[in-house]
Amino acid sequence: MMKKVYSAEERYEALKLANEIGNKAAAERLGIKLDTLYTWISKAKTGKVGFCDNPGNIPITDPNRLKQLEKELQEAREEIEILQDALGFFVKRRKK
User: Fold this and answer.
1) 3-state secondary structure the chain
2) CA distances (Å), 27 to each of 4, 24, 55, 59, 91, in order?
3) Contact (Cβ atoms closer than 8 angstroms) between residue 40 and residue 52
4) Pair 16, 23: CB distance under 8 Å
5) How far apart are CA 63 and CA 58, in angstroms?
């Protein structure tokens, strides 16, 4: 049986999904072996050049990535809070 070869973009997307939903769930959803995913994670952490660059060619080990994700998370939380306040306003208004 021939071994499946994954592109750098496929590996990047798999690692991104694993980061979002967990390694085991991502491997199951994508139909890849968990050991394969762990190997990719290890190689990405060591910064193997060209192994897992995203489509914008920014390595997953980019030190600014964490700051960017934290900022996006904070913005999303603020948006959720605004939407919850608006929902509460309309629910109260409708009850009257």
Assistant:
1) CCCCCCCHHHHHHHHHHHHHHCHHHHHHHHCCCHHHHHHHHHHHHCCCCCCCECCCCCECCCCHHHHHHHHHHHHHHHHHHHHHHHHHHHHHHHHC
2) 14, 5, 21, 21, 41
3) yes
4) no
5) 10
pLDDT per position as a tens digit, 36-94: 999 888 888 777 655 555 544 445 556 677 788 888 999 999 999 999 988 888 877 77
- Least Cα distance to 5 among 47, 51, 61 occurs for 51
C-alpha span between 66 and 47 (Å, rounded): 15
CB atoms within 10 A of CB 56: 5
pTM of the model: 0.50
The SS3 call for residue 12 is helix
Neighbours of 55 (CB within 10 A): 9
Residue 59: DSSP 8-state? B
